[in-house]
Amino acid sequence: MESGQISDYGFLADGRSAALVDAAGSVNWWCPGRFDAPSVFGRLLDDGAGHWSIRPEADFTVERSYLRDTLVLRTVFRTAKGEVALTDALAFEPGSRGHDIGMHPPQVLVRSVQGLSGAVPMRVHYRPRFEYGRTIAYLVEREDMLEAIAGAARLTFRGSVRLACGDDGDAAATFTVRAGTTHNFTLGYAPTYDAPLPEVPDADQTIADTVAGWRSWADEHDYQGLYAEEVRRSGLVVQGMTYRPSGAVVASVTTSLPEKLGGDRNYDYRYVWVRDFSHTLRALWRSACFDEVRRQFAWLGRAMGRVSDQPVPIMYGVLGERDLTEHRLDQLGGYRDSPPVVTGNDAWRQRQNDIYGAAMDAAWLMRDQLEPFDRDVYHLLRVLADQAEQDWKQPDAGMWEERGVQHHHVSSKVECWVALDRAVRFGDQLGGPQDLARWTAARDEVRAAILERGWSDRLQSYTGVFDSDELDASVLVMPLVGFLRADDPRMRSTVRAVERRLSHDGLLRRWDGDPAGFVICSFWLVSCLALAGERDRAHALFRDLAGRVNDLGLFAEQIDQQTGEQLGNFPQAFSHIGLINAAGVLTDVEQDPTLRECGMPPAHFTPRR
């Protein structure tokens, strides 16, 4: 059995980095140290870029699952000669529990092979390739370990089976696993210089401790709403995509997985977008708890620093880095021969006016924790409100980050309205009478412009940009941020038009010509339907979408409308955040009659624990 699709992968995380393991037992992606570090296993993007596989030698079938409430992966191989279980984990630091997990992980990948029945011949193939496949390390045998050092990285391999080193920087071995026996392997990472040898603890103890760490975190996050199992899994995924030292949630853990096979829209998503911020905080609040929310907002304030009158950066590295200049990796052929492969993301240079609303809405969501404002928070929010007032008339790259062009995107105008609306709601805590008068006037001016220039009489719908007749699913955020009631006649007409033109089998494309359904847009549709009173349709669509995860409950960014194949970077935080928030809206609508009556989202309500 060979893996070929994005959905074949399982996801491991340790609070700083992530690894992807395919259904054939091969670790094909690991960037140790931090999510956006160079890979040591990169076969996901090129067959020669490194991997570590453990698999039966003969034909096999597979059944996979995560151990309950963890990101520890169990793969059961079934062969004609017996069954074997492979357990994979990125280790937490010993004894870490609850909100401390992932703060200081040992940076160790642990793999345990257990015989379940019969006697199964197995093969292990270890092929490290550093710097995204550029560098082949010398493998050096040292007593009980195999060391690989090249450039800035050092790997230490230990296992109960001795590997034979080849001349090409590979090592391999065959062994037989019998029922009741276990063979363990560990791989530790450390920088080459100014760091001790990678610590490689006992594999069985490490797996048990990592399982206990994940479960202790899950036990502190008791979501009580509808679709609890799906929300719980997505909450774990979002937590796995959190860089724990800073609290930042990356958009994905991969780079350059294509939106369309053979296309060139391949981007590095291992960074943090301000645009996603309010969605992320709302999802964390529902599925996690206040600690994660507070750390997220603190990270944003530190990343932005003291904001001037220049445009606010739209994205950052996990520690708040701003310069994310894009570089092509021409030595890699790309996922399923779909180049280019890039690191960095030149969207960091763009103007995106929606970020003002994302940050201000997050502050409004957190108002009980923020008030009274610290001086830096007070300054940040005032500047964001002032910039929304100043910039809303400017064209921008929009939510979907068009390159090389700028338009008057309706969703960006809506988010500027959100920024001004929340500033006005904060009242005299944020500004004096003159400030509030300015923000109120600008808010009303933005709203009037959207209602007039964002509406197409021909389509009977709000559109993607001012004065156009082109639909865009981004307008579905209008009721979700409180700009319009979901049951407003024009909003109902917009939802019908978007469904009719952009939806197929429940999957919603962003625009006409988008190559696949965009998962979070489909969940926005769920929320719009629920808030408009079409609750049966909303629940049916939610269940259909939630059923499109892979066998481990993971979403990529997009799903092909015809084949159902997952596409784009994986796993995708925005997709899982969309699921969590849609489940929350469905819960609110069922439990709170006032929402059913007013057709408004819970944007101004405290999320229910």
TrEMBL record:
Residues 237-583 form the GH15-like domain. One of its GO terms (molecular function) is trehalase activity. Residues 5-154 form the Trehalase-like N-terminal domain. GO terms for biological process: trehalose catabolic process. It holds the Pfam family Glyco_hydro_15. InterPro entries: 6-hairpin_glycosidase_sf, 6hp_glycosidase-like_sf, GH15-like, Trehalase-like_N. It comes from the Bacteria. PANTHER family: TREHALASE. This is GH15 family glucan-1,4-alpha-glucosidase.
